Amino acid sequence: MDVFKIMNISASGMTAQRFRLDIIATNIANAETTRTETGEPYRRKIPIFSEYVKMYMGYKEPAGVKVDRVAVDRSPFRLVYDPTHPDADENGYVKMPNVNVLREMVDLINAQRAYEANVTVLNSIKSIASSALQIGAGG
């Protein structure tokens, strides 16, 4: 496989994980947001990725990963009893975002590890290419 294709695939993986980290950060930042512009609590967002392929001489060739879309988690909101909260209903319950900070932290670690794995691939292929150039140069 072409060295530059491997680098592009790895770079697309790094870009995707960076986007995933941004979404996770947004979810954590809004874990207590009880009112958005729609009038309801913040809903957790989930990035959806898909394979990016290029056509090459009539064949599909893997070219990396791309962000397909950002989905909205439709799981129910958490109900918290706090009659003093301005968004409390008549029974004193507040609808809180469907963001579980613990789950977000696990996803954050997962995304960080995936990013690091792509960096390792990129560094390895750079080292291999450098070694090949030294061999080709006679030494």
Describe the structure.
The relative contact order is 0.20. The chain has two helices and four strands, in the order H-E-E-E-E-H. The protein has helices at 3-29, 101-136, and strands at residues 45-56, 59-72, 78-81, 93-96. It has one domain (3-134). It is of the alpha+beta class and 139 residues long. Strands 1-2 form a two-stranded antiparallel sheet. Strands 3-4 form a two-stranded antiparallel sheet. The model has no long low-confidence stretch (mean pLDDT 93). 45% of the residues lie in helices and 24% in strands. Helix 1 runs antiparallel to helix 2. Strand 1 and strand 2 form a beta hairpin.
Topology readout:
Layout (H helix, E strand, L loop, with lengths): L2 H27 L15 E12 L2 E14 L5 E4 L11 E4 L4 H36 L3
Helix pairs in contact: 1-2
Q: What is the H-and-E element order?
A: HEEEEH
Number of strand elements: 4
Query: Which strand order does the major sheet show?
Result: 1-2
How does the helix and strand content classify structurally?
alpha+beta
Number of helices: 2
Mean pLDDT: 93
Describe the sheet with the most strands: 2 strands, antiparallel
Q: Rg to the nearest angstrom?
A: 22 Å
In helices, the fraction of residues equals 40-55%
How many domains make up the 3D coordinates? 1
Unreliable stretches (pLDDT < 50, length at least 5) are: none
Question: Distance N terminus to C terminus?
Answer: 24 Å
Q: Give the overall shape, derived from the CA principal axes.
A: elongated
- Strand fraction equals 15-25%
